[in-house]
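Thread: ABC transporter permease, structure

OP (GT): Posting the sequence first so everyone is looking at the same thing. Length is 328 residues per the record. Can we get the structure tokens written out before standup tomorrow? I want them in the notebook alongside the other entries.
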Amino acid sequence: MEKLLIYRERLLKFIAARGRYIQSGIRFLSGFILFYAMGRLFGYTDFFASPFFLVMMGIINVFIPTSALSLIFYVVIFLQLAHVSLEVALFFLLAVLLYFLVYQRVFPETRIYLMMVPVFFYFQLPACIPIFAGMFAGIAGIPAILMGTFIYYLATMVSQAVTQLQTGAAHGKIYSLVAARAIDNKELLLYFGIFCLIVVLITAIRRKGAARSWEVSILVGGAAYVILLFAGGYFANSEVSILAQIGMVVVSIVIAIIIQFLYNVIDYTREETFEFEDEEYYYYVRAVPKVSVEEEEFNVTQITAPAHRFSLRRKEHKEQDKEHKKGE
């Protein structure tokens, strides 16, 4: 464990020393991956899925705040939907406006969770969504991940409607097919319920302040996710691949534990409690220090032989011998 802590400190020092370059690289990759996933989910125009656009969005994301990235995110989705159905695009715009007025302007820091949701769904890692939200956002992050889930399933429903119309399997307008699928989409409601329960569970365990509460909340949240998904899939008559879901949850748990390990490490063996009072209250304070490991510093002193002094002395002796001979 001590070696892991040493490696963690080295990594954090490396990131701190080159923070600007690393942050720029992470922002470039996040912008590229975000719009790559959006291009695959809403792939109705070639431009928004082109490598040029993806690279440009990665570069732009380096210099813009998260609020501007969120606005571009909504605009790209709206333009993609408008390309196939103006009615669906207007419905999406109305949903985004209501979401912004009711929630996002009050909790602007949660917009990053909304944009993460379709990406994790695209890469088949939806279990990461409630685990991360429960770890870092708490209950306040629930509306953001629900809105992100709605965007992902809107993309799948529109894609299925377009495919049905192109193959002749269905007839009518795209918005009517999407509305019919949305009303009967039990899988969307299943994920809504699972995400809410997992976020509440992880937040409750983490805020208990018990020993190893971070790690316990991640493990319990992952196990509860699997149980709820299988139970919900059974009652909703939805096909669930057992091995694939278990593997996905294990990968999600490993990712969450790595991020939590880099975020903070708490030493519960050095826990302290304090009691003090003032004129109105009596206070009980529980202090648990973070773990920090300092590497031993070695001072290396380089010793060089004074060869130049020896050569100077030899020269001096030679000159004295010459003068002595001349004197004789």
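GT: Both are above now. Quick notes for whoever picks this up: The chain is about 70% helix and 5% strand. The mean pLDDT is 80.
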